[in-house]
Amino acid sequence: SAVISQKPSRDICQRGTSLTIQCQVDSQVTMMFWYRQQPGQSLTLIATANQGSEATYESGFVIDKFPISRPNLTFSTLTVSNMSPEDSSIYLCSVGRDRGGSNYGYTFGSGTRLTVV
Amino acid sequence: AQTVTQSQPEMSVQEAETVTLSCTYDTSENNYYLFWYKQPPSRQMILVIRQEAYKQQNATENRFSVNFQKAAKSFSLKISDSQLGDTAMYFCAPQAQGGSEKLVFGKGTKLTVNP
């Protein structure tokens, strides 16, 4: 299965600023996913990132707040913009099937713990 | 919206014993995948086991096995010979409807293995 490197692992940010989270995959994957996990909660999908097209956002999430880039089949970034304390969460990236169509994907990055003060 | 129900917010088990975590879901798909993930305090999401809905045989990975009842839309996880390292949050995650590769997560079950 794919191995994902996610950076940073944690950050403390001032309200009103932005943070960009990076995920690098060791193989080419069609889809990458960005999730938010609020304290004590389950995972909620923010958006799906496809290479070469705009990300598809889930209800309640907008591009202006969470812009996503997907420049190639192994890399994606999520930016949390104009942060407020309510954005304090763990953010995780994940991948689906690999480019060859194997179903042994669905692995996750190690997560970014964001605290907004 | 597609729902996934994990009815046991917390469970505990003695070391070396067996425990079963329940999960029910809804879907209108016929072919799809289902997953159980483990999230220890390190917060890393670890894939425990997966099941393909078109396979009748229940998936098994060492001490972990599932009881998949497709008609009932039930997907329980059995952990045998529980170990202290099994202490974690466990999330059930079926594949979303519509052929997408995205997953829908249940609220999770916090499992504690006691020595």
Structural account:
- The complex is a heterodimer of chains A (117) and B (115).
- Chain A has strands at residues 4-7, 10-13, 19-25, 31-37, 44-50, 56-57, 68-72, 75-80, 89-95, 112-116.
- By secondary structure, chain A is mostly beta strands.
- Chain B is globular.
- Chain B contains no helices and eleven strands.
- With 115 residues, chain B is mainly beta.
- In chain B, strands 2-11-10-5-6 form a five-stranded mixed beta sheet, with no helix packed on it. Chain B has a four-stranded antiparallel beta sheet with strand order 3-9-8-7, with no helix packed on it. A two-stranded antiparallel sheet of chain B has the order 1-4.
- The A-B interface holds A 1, 30-31, 33, 37, 41-45, 48, 90, 92, 94, 96-97, 103, 105-108, 110-111, 113 and B 33, 35, 37, 42-45, 47, 50, 52, 91, 100-108.
Brief overview:
The complex is a heterodimer of chains A (117) and B (115). Chain A has strands spanning 4-7, 10-13, 19-25, 31-37, 44-50, 56-57, 68-72, 75-80, 89-95, 112-116. With 117 residues, chain A is mostly beta strands.
User: How would you sum up the global shape of chain B?
Assistant: globular
Please provide the ordered H/E string of secondary-structure elements of chain B: EEEEEEEEEEE
* Rg of chain A, alpha carbons: 14 Å
How many beta-strand runs of chain B?
11
According to DSSP, the number of beta strands of chain A is 10
How would you write the strand order of the largest sheet of chain A? 2-10-9-4-5-6
Write down the secondary-structure element order of chain A. EEEEEEEEEE
Describe the strand arrangement of the main beta sheet of chain B, using strand numbers.
2-11-10-5-6
Largest sheet of chain A: 6 strands, mixed
Low-confidence stretches of chain A: none
Low-confidence stretches of chain B: none
Q: Structural class, judged by helices and strands of chain A?
A: mainly beta
* Greatest contact between two chains: A-B, 24 and 20 residues
Distance between the termini of chain B: 40 Å
Q: How widely separated are the two ends of chain A? A: 37 Å
The count of helical stretches of chain B stands at 0
Strand % of chain B is: over 45%
pLDDT averaged over residues of chain A: 91
Approximately what portion of the residues of chain A adopt beta-strand conformation?
over 45%
Radius of gyration of chain B: 14 Å
Number of helices of chain A: 0
